[in-house]
Amino acid sequence: MVKKVYEYDLDESFDIYLLIKSADVRLAKNNKSFIAFTFQDRSGQIDGKFWDAKEDEINRFQAGTVVKVSGKRELYQNNPQLRISKMRIAQDVDAVSPEQFMERAPLRTEEMVEEINNTLFEITSAPINRIVRFILNKYHKAFFDYPAAKRLHHAFAGGLSYHTVSILRLAKTVASNYPGINESLLYGGVILHDIGKTIELSGAFSTEYTLKGNLIGHIVLVDEEITKACEALKIDEDTEDVILLKHVVLAHHGKLEFGSPVVPHLLEAEVIHHLDNLDASINMIDTALQRTTPGTFSERIFGLENRTFYHPNESVAVEKE
Amino acid sequence: MVKKVYEYDLDESFDIYLLIKSADVRLAKNNKSFIAFTFQDRSGQIDGKFWDAKEDEINRFQAGTVVKVSGKRELYQNNPQLRISKMRIAQDVDAVSPEQFMERAPLRTEEMVEEINNTLFEITSAPINRIVRFILNKYHKAFFDYPAAKRLHHAFAGGLSYHTVSILRLAKTVASNYPGINESLLYGGVILHDIGKTIELSGAFSTEYTLKGNLIGHIVLVDEEITKACEALKIDEDTEDVILLKHVVLAHHGKLEFGSPVVPHLLEAEVIHHLDNLDASINMIDTALQRTTPGTFSERIFGLENRTFYHPNESVAVEKE
Amino acid sequence: MVKKVYEYDLDESFDIYLLIKSADVRLAKNNKSFIAFTFQDRSGQIDGKFWDAKEDEINRFQAGTVVKVSGKRELYQNNPQLRISKMRIAQDVDAVSPEQFMERAPLRTEEMVEEINNTLFEITSAPINRIVRFILNKYHKAFFDYPAAKRLHHAFAGGLSYHTVSILRLAKTVASNYPGINESLLYGGVILHDIGKTIELSGAFSTEYTLKGNLIGHIVLVDEEITKACEALKIDEDTEDVILLKHVVLAHHGKLEFGSPVVPHLLEAEVIHHLDNLDASINMIDTALQRTTPGTFSERIFGLENRTFYHPNESVAVEKE
Amino acid sequence: MVKKVYEYDLDESFDIYLLIKSADVRLAKNNKSFIAFTFQDRSGQIDGKFWDAKEDEINRFQAGTVVKVSGKRELYQNNPQLRISKMRIAQDVDAVSPEQFMERAPLRTEEMVEEINNTLFEITSAPINRIVRFILNKYHKAFFDYPAAKRLHHAFAGGLSYHTVSILRLAKTVASNYPGINESLLYGGVILHDIGKTIELSGAFSTEYTLKGNLIGHIVLVDEEITKACEALKIDEDTEDVILLKHVVLAHHGKLEFGSPVVPHLLEAEVIHHLDNLDASINMIDTALQRTTPGTFSERIFGLENRTFYHPNESVAVEKE
Amino acid sequence: MVKKVYEYDLDESFDIYLLIKSADVRLAKNNKSFIAFTFQDRSGQIDGKFWDAKEDEINRFQAGTVVKVSGKRELYQNNPQLRISKMRIAQDVDAVSPEQFMERAPLRTEEMVEEINNTLFEITSAPINRIVRFILNKYHKAFFDYPAAKRLHHAFAGGLSYHTVSILRLAKTVASNYPGINESLLYGGVILHDIGKTIELSGAFSTEYTLKGNLIGHIVLVDEEITKACEALKIDEDTEDVILLKHVVLAHHGKLEFGSPVVPHLLEAEVIHHLDNLDASINMIDTALQRTTPGTFSERIFGLENRTFYHPNESVAVEKE
Amino acid sequence: MVKKVYEYDLDESFDIYLLIKSADVRLAKNNKSFIAFTFQDRSGQIDGKFWDAKEDEINRFQAGTVVKVSGKRELYQNNPQLRISKMRIAQDVDAVSPEQFMERAPLRTEEMVEEINNTLFEITSAPINRIVRFILNKYHKAFFDYPAAKRLHHAFAGGLSYHTVSILRLAKTVASNYPGINESLLYGGVILHDIGKTIELSGAFSTEYTLKGNLIGHIVLVDEEITKACEALKIDEDTEDVILLKHVVLAHHGKLEFGSPVVPHLLEAEVIHHLDNLDASINMIDTALQRTTPGTFSERIFGLENRTFYHPNESVAVEKE
User: Fold this and answer.
1) How far is CA E212 from the centre of its chain?
2) What are the tens digits of pLDDT across the range A88-125?
């Protein structure tokens, strides 16, 4: 099994294949061009600078191509950085393809599709069930392809559906422990809560915000989709369940200052807000700790008030499974 | 000309007709019932308590009826209060009707209709023009009937359209002074910005929040209406002007913590936000100052961070026509 | 089965037994004494005033006695209130005892003891396991008797352990879904996180803050207990697991402004913070909704930024189980 | 007509005259000196670095001289930057002078003087009229020369009076739409509100804060000027109109945290605060959008909470006038 | 020695002389008038209600008269309250005068005058010395008569100068411990910092805010006085020491949101801000603790974020002096 | 007497001995190594870059060695920076040792020991006296060696005890001016308040946070020490004086958001909080002003909301002793 970039020790020399995720050409202080690369393999992403880049190198080392890099991983101001000593384009004999290097959700798409489909049977409210199926169907491909965010959490292909499935699992424990929960509303809300990101973001790779993403935002975009689903399915939009479903989506950021136009006024809205936060937090911390040497603190996590997290030594966790 | 309740001096005895706006029966400490009234005439509203209310008095003194009240206006903890000494139901010979006592916008409905219709001709963007006409048409009656808020500002019949027309007038000065402004977007945005209040609120009198008002809110309700207008009018909702129009409506509260799901990213969105605030502030201060003796400070205004406002003496304003 | 106070409709007359939870004698405006009661049965608590109280009534109607009350439940400024028409002390023939009227956790103590004991076997870190057992043992009785708070959430006998068990159930789902979790730390932290409330609060009934509660607070009080446990058990307090355990307890309020002296820097600290919040929120909403007529909004919930929550009509939840 | 720096496309080569606004000599990583220039012409300002600067180049390329530059405009981390390929001092035959390159208010000084003078006739309160004339007279030259700020908005020669005139125009619409307004106070307040900047700032070019600017601030500096005007003009400073005039100046930042020592307690103070904000916001957005390609977002605007603004495509505005 | 109202135990009956500080006549729920009194003697102030007040009682029991009251001190919602059983006007034979009941600063005026005069000799900067003497002289009587605030701290006659002297004492320790301090600036700033309260407030008794107090505020009022002193004394107001003196006064609230128009940019400004806070805090806590039974917590202190303070039992302090 | 680095003028060439405080080797844009030094002597610390560092230079120029540097002090973006022209290791003939270059508290250790010992006699509460002696004894060496912070204030060897002694001096003035103060509690609290920093920080030089420092924090660490002292000294931890002592330590940051788990509820806690702030602020400003040319503003001070402080010209302070 080939070792990946984050499986090497700091300052250990290596000679590995990496995918160029992005390549920006800039002018150095010495008036020569250099390339600011972001590389990736399935262990994560890493930046690296390629100095004194010549015209043909600039042309060849484009985003999307796989390269073989000799170098090592260093720490620069507590952030990982790749120091490149040699680099060439991968060739046919190397037998590598870009797909091998892209991070993906730890669950296969089919598993996620099935888990969500099974949940649909537990949505016993007819209007909620029909609306959720309609929207899922409309954005099916993107929903299972897109990341959950451009950068913050679950920022990998399939991240959106993986985030959704993870919350659904927590939601089921909540529903079974607290009898007052309306499962139709809870599960329907979880499945739809972030699906507007398929409109807010530009795609699974080189993800950017679209104009609608910037000017309307994924929260209201879901509300629009529910409105359109009602028109298409001839569901009266004054049905209480429709209003409730819109509310749990609109309120899922929990506070006005986080971008929800209304604060939670339903038990299920409050629960979705908490579970969304919990799953995103765990994912951000997990990602950071995987790149942190035991016994030290991680880099600062932007989405968690710039806190650092400690990776414990010889934790009991090690013995787990 | 008959004097109105706020035209009498403090502690001056009077004998006038008033409309009962609301009447809550409560239990006093001495175990007898009393009625907590809110009365109104066109000079404003005032609270007053009716002690030791008998069964038949409770039945007769209902909201919506006109009464003749002997009493005086007092200050209780810096708030005006009516001290009732005698009170009876108005009769036919009194020749008074509830309409005479309801506060209304200072402009007649027809004037406001005309002013808004004239503005439509200045909206030269075809999609914006068609959407605005469609929604105005759909909610025409309510738009010219409803207040702009339950309590805070323009809380009187016709207040919603009056607030809109007032902003439009300011908007025209802005458009003529700053050449970079897109008038279609500015005027379209002003007209639609609060029209969701026709769904958020229950009506022109005894106004309450509806379920949709509480759980979705007037800002997103307008966005839904634009979405539905596009479907009805076969306008592609990816047209840039449609996205811009949605944005100026969604962003008009200016900050996330004031309930906008996105902050202004368009010049026109920023302008509408400022003018909306300006007109609402002037209306709240004006209303408070009308009830404040010159040389003293008004009661605290909730919508303006509980500030009090000073009513100057012998102001130059007095000489103004 | 006897109906309880919240099982009667608003304004429906009843004749029921209630426990006097507290009884404050005050002077009315008419210079006579009245008693401000808080009554309770297992459906909840309710306030009521008893006017013109005579000396012997004041002496007899003390906190802790069961009374038979004729009256009805009213709404006063959107808060429930008991209107008393007649009231007498319960007698032997009534065959009622105070215990029958006290709210308790929905789980029996033995069930909770067993659930927590079972969890102890999953704490495989020796120092954490020994410390948790030592402290649990020391405060065993109070831990299963005390409420989780004076007023905010789980404010009933046994509420502290019930809140702990509820979080433990969620914690197990989290541990099974996210492989990076250290279960010893997570479960140990959950069990200890609020146990300082047995020192912070005065007891299971008529709960007040103690001097140590006011001046040190339950968070630091747990830290002190861990320090003392280490001394007693001869565990080196520099052991990493001890430091981690202290941290997850100290950080469980999540933010400095909520009273944690440190913010979470461990994955498990972040998770405990979220689950603690989630369980407390659900309990507060549930309690409020049980007293709210379907189709209306609850009273404001102090612990949730004064939000009101909507109790939906004919919710799908009704059909559940 | 000669094209200006912001009229060229990004990355289009040009050969134009520019004024050196500032020139800082620094040491590069390669131990050679470079010059960090800010250039300007009437289309705006732009930074550019001149590498490997020799002694005589450092001596010749000083702030205030006009140069001919060959190069192109680039984007560096979303900020415009000038890439210099060649550069020489302009000579007599080039027939260019620094004044041609300085940004100025879009109105001529005489127009602004006249507009303000005309307004003085509408200030019918004698004390306000005399005070305003006295102060205007004292700071006349600076008032029509200075910028309105060092960097944030209207940061060009004549910007202070231009900002004042722009607000006056809005103020007149407000006064004509809302009858409760005291025009003497409103117009007097607008004219004086920022005149303390003639003391706070060092001058029209290379503007810095003075010691009084830093330690007293322009708001209190105006209050001092009113105090001194009263002494000079023998106006009793306890005259209500004087107190009101001071208040509208002191309160014009609207909130304590924005540097006003008192919050608005007069209708006119509230209005001036809003109009000041509105005009400054429009100016900042306008300036940013002029440098932004249609269909993209501007750089972040510091004075507007770091928001970016979108420059729409084929906006209807294009067809205007 | 006659015992004062706060020297009696709670609920202990007494028969003492008190000064009526204020007397508001209000209407009770039973439609009879009652008087809401505030009484005071040198141990503090206390409220009390007088029910069923007759016309002649209302006329006789006016603010400023001394009465003999039979009653006791009670706690009402944790606030002290006087329960009146009998009350009559004091007569000549009682040999009491209002002055005996007014709280005053614990130092005699002459002591304070001397202490401040001595300090003037340590102000070696000529302009600061002259300005401080000029202003002190101008407001001499009020400065030694007024309270330091209407309610918050040092709210008694002479409180303003007492607060000033207390800070001066601390300031001298600071100056002797930290050699970098400019004593002229520090002592001059301390003496002037709150002297604007002689204009902001209406007088030593029944203190209210004046119009200038409300619309300009004591901080800027001092700045105006320095400006006028410079004119009168022909001191150039651009002298650095004058600017520094203005700054330490303007900045003494420490933060913009507390009403300073500039934040401290001088060491001495920072020191004055801290000492002002420290002295005010100690005074507020001391006042509250004097009315608090040992072993219990005080009422909430508004000026200290509504915190309560604990009055310890058998504190070592008891043995002091 | 040899001149120190901050005693030379800006841009004046010098040839002086400096201690290397830290030396980080980094890669320059030209692919050569450079060393980022922090140097220090007793006038302060200063950064400087050494370009094109060779292997043997990297090996020789290590932290802890004294070097002779030719160069000058420059300003880079308003921060002082050392421009190195030549540099060599100090040799025996140079007769310099690292100790000569380390900043230390301005008081000798013995003076501080004596001052604190004398204070112990004024702590008349037996439990407080014994606890303070026990903890002081346990951490004696570190307490007089450590800095008070890693960077913010008193960041030099002995800074912790120096900060403590400085506060004690202020505390004695407070105790003598305000009779309500409990001196045992005040002095005991001052001595212990920051002693947890001996556990939180790693040592007197190259100071870093320890794991306990990061995860528990110095405030709670003192509380633990008091708990352990009680166990060791057989003092009942429910003694009121023990609870009070813990409280003044826990509350000394004054607000929850500054890391205190409880806010001050004791007069002495409030006083310690203020004096701690005052002494830290003066130290930070003093340090900054020493490096600031008279007539200019200092660099921004991070610990004081990034404010800059003005160093006045020809201040009266100059004449002081």
Assistant:
1) 19
2) 998 888 888 877 887 778 899 999 999 999 999 999 99
Phi and psi angles of residue C15, each rounded to the nearest 5 degrees, phi first = -150, 90
Of F176, F148, F15, F43, give the one whose Cα is nearest residue F101: F43
Looking at CA atoms only, how far is residue C9 from chain B in angstroms? 19
For chain C, the C-alpha Rg in angstroms (whole number) is 22
**Residues 25-64, chain B, touching E (beta carbon < 8 A):** 28-30, 34, 51-52
Task: Please name the residues in contact with A96: beta carbons below 8 A apart, sequence gap of 6 or more.
Answer: A17, A66, A90
Of the ranges B102-116, D153-167, E256-270, F24-38, the best mean pLDDT one: E256-270
Cα-to-chain-centroid distance, residue C74 = 25
Q: Name the nearest CA neighbour of F45 among F86, F102, F93, F94.
A: F102
List the one residue out of A167, A166, A144, A170 whose CA is nearest residue A156.
A144
**CB neighbourhood size of A12 (10 A):** 10
Q: Answer whether residue D1 shows pLDDT above 70.
A: no
What values do phi and psi take at F297, rounded to 5?
Answer: -100, 145
pLDDT at A156 over 90: no
Of the candidates B177, B285, B320, which has its C-beta nearest D270's C-beta? B285
φ/ψ of B15, rounded to 5, equals: -150, 90
Amino acid of residue C304:
L
Angle between helices F109-120 and F126-138 (to 10 degrees): 160
Q: Are F300 and F310 spatial neighbours (Cβ–Cβ below 8 Å)?
A: no
- Quote the tokens at residue E18: 């008190």
DSSP letter at A195 equals: T
User: Phi and psi dihedrals of F313, rounded to 5?
Assistant: -80, 160
The Cα A261–Cα A220 span in angstroms is: 9
F2: left (phi over 0), alpha (psi -120 to 50) or beta: beta
CB count, 10 Å around CB of F98?
A: 16
The amino acid that residue F246 corresponds to is K
pLDDT for res C33: 82
Nearest by CB to A227, which of B224, B257, B259?
A: B224
E146 vs F158: CA distance, rounded Å: 46
Q: Round to whole Å and give the CA distance between F102 and F87.
A: 19
pLDDT of F286 > 60? The answer is: yes
Distance, CA of E272 to CA of E244 (rounded, Å) = 13
Q: Is the dihedral of CA B246, B250, B253, B256 positive or negative?
A: negative
Quote the minimal CA–CA distance from F122 to chain E in Å.
11
Residue closest to D190 by CA, chosen among D134, D236, D139, D128: D128
Pairing mode, if any, of strands F33-41 and F44-50? antiparallel
Whether chain C lies against chain D with 3 or more Cβ pairs closer than 8 A is no
Q: Whole-angstrom Cα distance, residue C151 to residue C155?
A: 5
Which chains sit next to D, with 3 or more Cβ pairs under 8 A?
A, B, E, F
Q: Which tokens hold the place of E278?
A: 């420290």
**Coil vs helix vs strand at A99:** helix
Higher pLDDT, F316 or D74: D74
Q: Which residue has the tokens 């979470």?
A: C264
Q: Of E255, F193, F260, A256, nearest to C257 (Cα)?
A: F260
Report the C-alpha dihedral over residues F256, F260, F262, F263, rounded to 10 degrees.
-70
pLDDT (tens digit per residue) in E15-62? 999 988 888 888 776 667 889 898 988 887 888 999 888 888 888 898
Which of D313, D308, D318 shows the shortest CA–CA distance to D294?
Answer: D313
What is residue E103's three-state secondary structure? coil
What are the tokens at D272? Answer: 């001036």
Contacts of E209 (CB under 8 A, 6+ apart): E150, E200, E201, E202
> If DSSP codes are grouped into helix, strand and coil, which group holds residue E210?
coil
E strand spans, chain B: 13-27, 33-41, 44-50, 66-76, 79-89
